[in-house]
Amino acid sequence: MLAKRIIPCLDVRGGRVVKGQKFQNIVDVDDPVNLAKMYSELGADELVFYDITASNEDRDIFIEVVEKTAEQVHIPFTVGGGIRTIEDFRKVLNAGADKVSVNSAAVKNPQIIYEAAQKFGSQCVVLSIDAKRNEQGNWSVFLNGGRVDSGKDALEWALEGVRLGAGEIVLNAMDTDGMKTGFSLDITKRISEGVNVPVIASGGAGEMQHFLDVLKEGSADAALAASVFHYGEINIMALKEYLYENGIEVRRIRNDSSNR
Amino acid sequence: MISIIDYGAGNLKSVYHALTKLGFQTQIASTVDQINNSDALILPGVGAFKDAMNHLNESGLVDSIKKNVQFGKPILGICLGMQLFYEKSYENGEWDGLGFLEGEVIRFNDNLKVPHMGWNNLIPGPNYNPDKGIGKQIGNAEYTYFVHSYYVASKNKEEIVFFSDYGIKLPAVVQKNNIYGMQFHPEKSSETGMTLLKNFGELIS
Question: Which domain covers residue B59, as residue numbers?
């Protein structure tokens, strides 16, 4: 049976992993390649690297991080942040990324999803959606780190993204991001059951129970988190044991080290 | 020397890094000489069947791959690379493959989430032996990383080393003589994937 995935997200700036709350109060955490290796050994199923820089200089450092990770870590990883063109896709894929996620750029120019899927295959095109409840109480797609309401309905946008060729959706519920009060179950469930590609829930993880809730009640195929892992509040191996004991199909890492 | 065949179908570095880390001499090969002079071949592949087959034909390497396989050189097809080994694919049309193995490549049923993406476990098939060959030291129900929308409907079940279950039982690892296929990405499948690649590398006599 297909296992539910646990995915640590690493926000990278200037070649370092950093963490903020609601995209603010950013602090330095660790070296990305070291963290990636550690997470892989603990049983992380995938990694997401998010480039939160803007300058070209930092962009080059980021590409080096992607290359080093591909060399040393043997689990899949997605790269996102600042992806605007097909050329951006090509660059990170060539550096060794398995998947590329687009966010704001796709809202502004949905055709990029189609072109990337045609060129590189749907399996590597991830549509990342920043969703937030607007004043009317509807889940709307937000841009620019949650500052601008695009006016698009989150589920509609997810469906359109899949039609255009996205092979996976990351749903980042901004209401709960960094709050550690749990994932947003209703919108996750609605989108996960509405589209026919895997959905990764993001935003709000604080305790193990939250992961269980979003994978079970939220129908998510995977759950993504950052700070609870970076600060050691939740150990990935322990989390997977917990999920397993609660009836969730997860990949637990093999214990034998005879052939390493 | 293991040659990873470069025919313009995506990034080969992950496979290269994994084999190198395991201590196998490995090269990314794009010429007939490189293929003829290596001890084993790896046919990777991502994207669409038709495009990959076209790229492969245009590369001018098909004849030499076929000859080497006929002479008994071990070859491993990964993901789409494995699918190319079969007779035919119905991915957006109807396309001929290399025909090393008998069977057809068909799409998953639409009531499933497609692509089949993520970690799924390996279920021993008729061709599994825990003590030797490609499945050596791979236990029951170990996980590997899959990403695919089409799967192989194999004519010869006895070739199947491992199945995986995604609505239907699909061939995950197959073997016939010197021909090996893995539907998942061993280079992305952590320790289990590394063990499988090690088993393949050790076939070189």
Answer: 2-201
- Which CATH number belongs to the domain containing residue B183 in this structure? 3.40.50.880
CB contact under 8 Å between B113 and A198, yes or no, is yes
Predicted ipTM > 0.95: no
Relative to beta strand B88-89, strand B103-107 is parallel
Count of the separate structural domains present in chain A: 1
pLDDT tens-digit readout, B91-142:
989 999 999 999 999 999 988 999 999 999 999 999 999 999 999 999 888 9
CB atoms within 10 A of CB B166: 22
Strands (E), chain B: 2-5, 26-29, 40-43, 75-78, 88-89, 95-96, 103-107, 116-121, 123-124, 143-148, 150-154, 160-166, 168-176, 179-182
Q: Is residue A98 part of a domain?
A: yes
Structure tokens at B62: 């098909």
Q: Which two tokens stand for residue A204?
A: 């709000």
The answer to whether residues B184 and B76 touch, using CB atoms and an 8 Å cutoff, is no
- A252 within some domain: no
Q: What gap in Å lies between CA B130 and CA A142, rounded to an integer?
A: 52
Q: Is B90 touching A (CB cutoff 8 A)?
A: no
Residue tagged active-site, from A88, A130, A177, A213: A130
Range of the domain at A14: 5-245
Domain count, chain B: 1
**Half-sphere exposure (Cβ direction) of B18: Cα atoms closer than 13 Å:** 28
Q: Do A196 and B113 touch (CB under 8 A)?
A: yes
